[in-house]
Amino acid sequence: MEEENSKAKKEKTVSFKVFLIRRIIFILIFAIIAGGITAYFVIKNPFKHENPKTSSKKEILDNEVPKAPTRNHIALLNYETDTFDYNDLQVNEINDNFEGYGITYFQINGLKDTSIQEKINYQLENDLKETITNAKNEGKIKGNFYCNSYVHSSFANTLSIEYSLDCVITNSNYDVTYNWDKQITENYDLTTGNKIKIQDLFTDDTIGADIFDNTFYKELIRYYVEQDYQEDDYSIRISVKDYKDIEEKILELIIKFNEGEEIPFYFDEQQVILPDFIYARIYFDEHLDFIAIYNKYKTTETIFDGKYPHLHNLPVLTKRYNSYYTVLEESENYYIDVDLANSVNSETVMNSVLNYINDDIEDMKAVNDNKFHIYNYSYEIYDENDNVYTLNVTTYKKETTKSLFTSEIKANIINTFRKAERIEGGDVHLYNNQFVYYLYEQNYDYEQMEKEWESDSYQIFLDKNGNIYETKAEARNPEEIEIKD
Description:
By secondary structure, the protein is of the alpha+beta class.
């Protein structure tokens, strides 16, 4: 009997051990499967994390591509005090007829090294023409052909240009039945003539996940929302498929960036734009630790011949719109920001306009009343096609103290030029660098602007000889009236 009880106990003990071992094996298998599934979804969908830099996916991508040593000398040292120069370069627009199509491309002047200049100019022309030839041979160019060309930036010994090609066919109801488009991005290091890759804009230790992060994810969503905006019911529609598509696009960008592959882009003083990814943007001010473009191509001696001077020593990440003539000057008793937005095809008239503007500037400098004066004047010249030219003038001026300007007002002006692209309307009102209006437009506080700034708006008129008149009628019939000084 005792032997039977002992045998039964042993059998129970063995059964329990078998059960325990099986349960442990089951738990381990379950844990492995669950962990695998979790890892899969973390990798596939990392952008739900609030901080992408601590996500599992970033750690994986860090391991995929070894980091290069940090080149601290090319990173921004101090966002508040670092400065940059606009290139002392002339960029000429060339209108041409190629393969039966009207095109526009650019050519540069002003480099000391003419071999580098010729190298860049050849590529700026040939890349556009070669793309058109290939597209024509492939039967892609049909219907109405458009070629739009843009200089996006010219600063810190770099140049960024975009050619945008578009072909459209519409039916009798103006519905688009065929569309082909192609963006050609041209980004150059002016010290060598070599093209810049997107990786060159950032420090050497930057990886894709550093810049294609949550902010970029939100940018792509915003563009998808804009694309899916339904005018019929004013609703916004974005599908689960869209979200998946966005995440796949970001993963593709991260891998390409880490592997040093080409990613079409163009850039300016504040951002990088990716035309192949619905023009999503990477804002420099959100990635300050990784920005290298301002210092990477600096040289001890100028690379320019000095024939086409532009503004120097501007705060980094400020963007001033390209104007025909700009004077930006600060002294102990004034701050002058004067801008002539454009020009006309008459050297005589332009010389007269510049003399008029420079006389205004001399009047500003001549004021000596122990106060600090801020001047923000903008000018625009138009050809009326009847030998009459109209100069529109808008002026803002303010009296303050040097200490208040240094401690508060100047920082607000700099911030205006740093944020212009980010607030609706900024690109319009800063077209002629008219910062005063924009300062108050953000809060629609025009009454306060009128209280704090003295403003005026008026026109003067010029004849073909550059003589100045108070009315258009006088400019049309100069022989009938006395010419004004």
